[in-house]
Design goal:
Helix content: 25-40%
Number of strands: 12
Distance between the termini: 29 Å
Strand content: 15-25%
CATH superfamily: Aldolase class I
Largest sheet: 8 strands, parallel, barrel
Order of helices and strands: HHEEEHEHEEEHEHEHHEHEHHEH
Radius of gyration: 20 Å
Mean pLDDT: 92
Number of domains: 1
CATH architecture: Alpha-Beta Barrel
């Protein structure tokens, strides 16, 4: 028997091709990132992220109508406060933009899984992810502030908290704080593997979180390193993380594969703002077929081992899944 005939037969028959397809994408696996600003009654375009919008907490239910109707079941919230200071004290304000947005989202869509980003960079006057002394981020002094922030989000109704700061020990500090207040069932989705990447530019513009001096290479990961990703993921697992994030996605598919192969926890990939902006700009210029190229990129992320995808394309992908575009 000529074994070379079998792959051709499977590809030639549409029904068989779909039946034996190795990688499938579910709407349940999509997470939609959203930016929440202070104020009331505002929905505004984000110039650096074409097609994306910022809103005030009261407008979040309006902004969620389309993605929820498309089948998006999970969102990730980032806050943009009016007040910034050296310690980022607005991050744990019970009436801050994220805290209010969580309550609004849960009121309007109780079935929605609400994830909150836990970091200080959007809230500090210097734009770094922790307390600064003599120009250096103070890891241990930052941990209690991150724990306070996570607690304020969970008290507001967040289902999952996602620490993105990359401070050593923050997962353990947050887990301890949540457990001590009876929130043992709330999950931690840790940015376990977060590289010091140039692909974050549009996000930093959208969130107003660019550092006022220096960079974040002292606490985010070196793009040259791969084994370090496994060490970081294992440490967060030991501290109590429930889900691990690899960020960015497309430039780090090899890292995603390694982490997913090494870990027993579900692994999420964050297709970051720069990835979205590149594909969006190329599509708008008529250089790429947007549904096809985004679908292909998405499949590559899941093929590399992701179980969850955080993406600005979540609403479109949900519709394209219904249309069968990701199965073609």
């Amino acid at each position: 028997m000529d074994l070379t005939e079998r792959p051709r037969r499977l590809r030639a028959n549409e029904g068989l091709r779909s039946m034996v397809m190795e990688t499938r994408v579910s709407k349940n696996a999509l997470v939609y990132p959203l930016f929440i600003r202070e104020g009331q009654g505002i929905v505004e375009d984000i110039p650096s992220l074409d097609g994306q919008k910022r809103c005030t907490p009261d407008k979040l239910p309006f902004l969620l109508e389309e993605p929820v109707s498309a089948g998006v079941r999970s969102i990730l919230l980032f806050g943009l406060p009016d007040h910034k200071d050296e310690t980022g004290s607005s991050a744990w304000d019970e009436n801050g933009p994220v805290q209010r947005a969580v309550r609004e989202a849960k009121r309007a869509f109780p079935e929605l899984t609400v994830i909150t980003d836990v970091c200080l960079c959007e809230y500090t006057s210097h734009g770094h992810c922790g307390v600064i002394k003599d120009g250096i981020v103070q890891n241990d002094e930052t941990l209690p502030l991150l724990a306070k922030t996570a607690l304020s989000h969970v008290r507001s109704g967040a289902d999952i908290v996602a620490p993105s700061d990359m401070m050593d020990g923050r997962v353990g500090a947050i887990r301890s704080a949540l457990d001590s207040e009876g929130f043992e069932q709330r999950a931690i989705m840790s940015y376990a593997v977060k590289y010091a990447s140039a692909f974050y530019g549009p996000f930093r513009d959208a969130a107003g979180s660019a550092p006022a001096f220096g960079d974040r290479k002292g606490y985010q990961m070196d793009p040259h390193n791969a084994k370090e990703a496994l060490r970081e993921a294992r440490l967060d697992t030991e501290e109590g993380a429930d889900i691990l994030i690899v960020k960015p996605a497309l430039p780090y598919l090899d890292i995603l594969y390694r982490v997913a192969s090494d870990s027993l926890l579900p692994v999420a990939a964050y297709s970051v703002s720069g990835e979205y902006a590149m594909l969006r700009a190329a599509a708008k210029a008529g250089l790429l077929d947007e549904p096809r190229v985004v679908s292909e990129a998405t499949i590559s992320i899941f093929r590399a081992g992701a179980r969850i995808l955080i993406t600005y394309y979540a609403p479109q992908l949900a519709r394209w899944i219904d249309e069968g575009r990701l199965d073609r």
